[in-house]
Amino acid sequence: MTRKILHAADIHLDSPLQKLDRYDHAPVQRIRSATRAALRNLTELAISENVDLVVIAGDLYDGDWTDQNTGLAFVEQASTLVRAGIPMLVIRGNHDAANLMTSSLPLPSNPDGSEIFLSHDAAESRFFEPLGIVVHGMSFRSRAEKRNLAAKYPDPVSGLFNLGLLHTGLEGDSVHGNYAPCTAAQLTDKGYDYWALGHIHTRADLKIGDGPPIVFSGNIQGRHIREQGEKGCVIIDVDSKNQCEYQFHSLDVLRWFECQIDVTAMTQQDEVLDSYQDWITERLETADGRLLIPRVRLIGESPLHMKLHQNQANLVADLQAISVAHGAGEVWLEDLRVRTTAPTNRSVSVDLEGPMESLNHVLRSLGDDEDLPEIITSELEGLMKKLPKELRGSDDDAAFPVDDKQWMSQLLESATADVMARMDAAADGHTSEAKR
Ligand SMILES: [Mn+2]
């Protein structure tokens, strides 16, 4: 008997997609409804692939709902699956831990009468006898789940396909947090046939040697520029000997990309725009109806360096116009990062002499000043206090990551280019005036 199980995680239903819906004219509706549309795709895939079971490894919800519509959106999809005779099991993760969710809605029961959510009081085993499958799992009670939950999971049941459903940050790191810590080796030792993990949004298999697949399916819809590329779920094919293979299926309705343009060989700003247009044309061929959200990143050592830094606002507007004009409604620019450098072979001694040379020297030497982060922090303090919390950001998404050396050097680079270009323009004006 062969069976199919769909494994997904980190739906983050109705999570706001960062930094987009604040722009005028952005395809706001499409962006806001992206996680719901991806979940609908999951339901459709489960039905069209005729899967026997759907498991969701935590963070179905992004947090407590602002209104009941988020819950209703899930009820709708769960009901569709139940009507199609497909059972579903969901555990709660750090984002939708039991004590964080104050609202709830009555959920449909699975076709066999069992509940969709797994307990947060103890690890449980759910048997699907006719399928020869048992799922072991446990929900988070609270966000900061520091216990090794996997250690509480029961021993495998022989003769059945044993699937472990777990939300975990594994050994933990600063980005993902140390939630429900455990190691891939501990999971392997458990003796299950497949580990369906959630929490880490990048797809990965941590299988050790001949051990079972230990799979993070990743989230089903990227939510910001750090969640690039295809997102979706995996479908596990289990054979009659309880051996399994799995395959990825994309579910996302919009996709984030970095569009890197090397401006080294360019002499005109228009060439940047041409290059971006080519990128759009190429990407649209494989977009498959998805909205593409590129962040344009300009790199390279170029005589355009100063100009690009100075004209950033105009350049963003130009790039957005090209996105709209050539993207056929399928492209929206996320943002621009100018990361170019000034040509090193520039004849500094000719261009810069006297006050300009000393100014350039002062600006360049700021980069070596150890107190710079502190100085900038104190300069920004007043502004930071006035910024609303969501714009201030935090950790890896902070508005002013003053401890980030790369950010700081780009800030300096940009400021230097700006000041020098202004001085240059002023000097030019002065010269032509003198000539006249
Ligand atoms: Mn999580």
TrEMBL record:
Keyword Repressor: no
Boundaries of every Calcineurin-like phosphoesterase domain copy: 4-202
Name of this protein: Putative metallophosphoesterase YhaO
InterPro entries, per the entry: Calcineurin-like_PHP, DNA_Repair-Maintenance_Comp, Metallo-depent_PP-like, Mre11_N, Pesterase_YhaO
One annotated GO molecular function: hydrolase activity
SUPFAM superfamilies: Metallo-dependent phosphatases
Keyword Signal: no
Keyword annotations from UniProtKB, A to Z: Hydrolase
CDD domains given in the database record: MPP_Mre11_N
Lineage: Bacteria, Pseudomonadati, Planctomycetota, Planctomycetia, Pirellulales
